[in-house]
């Protein structure tokens, strides 16, 4: 099995956490941003990573989108489960996962790249890193007004995720796609002191989930 990814992408981290949780062995191929479309477009019709190539006869050649990767993994590798049999719990988990994916993961990207192009410049002051940050800010139209909206969405996310203060799991009594999505999609904020100080339980639980899944901790955690 091969995972096409950008090494720093939080959506790719989400796919790796699920693969790790299920104990699946896989390899990664790190694509070069910009050139990635040449490889991905013919394979999936889309331009985003992660893309999973099962490399198994009779199975799809390529699965694009982290949510679709979750579904593929659950169908083909049901044990240990990340979905629930109980339809009520599964709906809750799927709703949380979709909201984290479509709204919060994007908000994280906006706030993170604005930080990296300002106060967080020194994290990697190399020319290549600063260039990538500039391109990302341009590509996603990351500007002050959009970042303010993203911060408001993140505030709501931290309120919703207060559940982690009381309980180990966002839904039900075991880890699910909701926990994996939250641990991955908020992880870039670990580098931003304001978030680390205000929401320590988010980053404690993120660390635990990475350990459970056998995934290396994101920058800012564990160093
Ligand atoms: N909803 C998608 C989002 C994936 C996504 O936004 N990936 C970004 C990297 S973090 C990407 O590939 N961007 C490059 C592009 O859009 O061409 C998923 O869950 O897989």
Automatic annotation (TrEMBL):
Entry EC number(s): 2.5.1.18
Keywords attached to this entry: Transferase
Entry keyword Transmembrane helix: no
InterPro entries found in the cross-reference section: Glutathione-S-Trfase_C_sf, Glutathione_S-Trfase_N, GST_C, Thioredoxin-like_sf
GST N-terminal domain mapped to chain residues: 1-81
Annotated GO biological process: glutathione metabolic process; L-phenylalanine catabolic process
UniProt keyword annotation of Transferase present: yes
Pfam families associated with the record: GST_C, GST_N_3
Top-level EC class: transferase
GO molecular function (one): glutathione transferase activity
Family annotation (PANTHER family): MALEYLACETOACETATE ISOMERASE
Protein name stated in the entry: Gst1
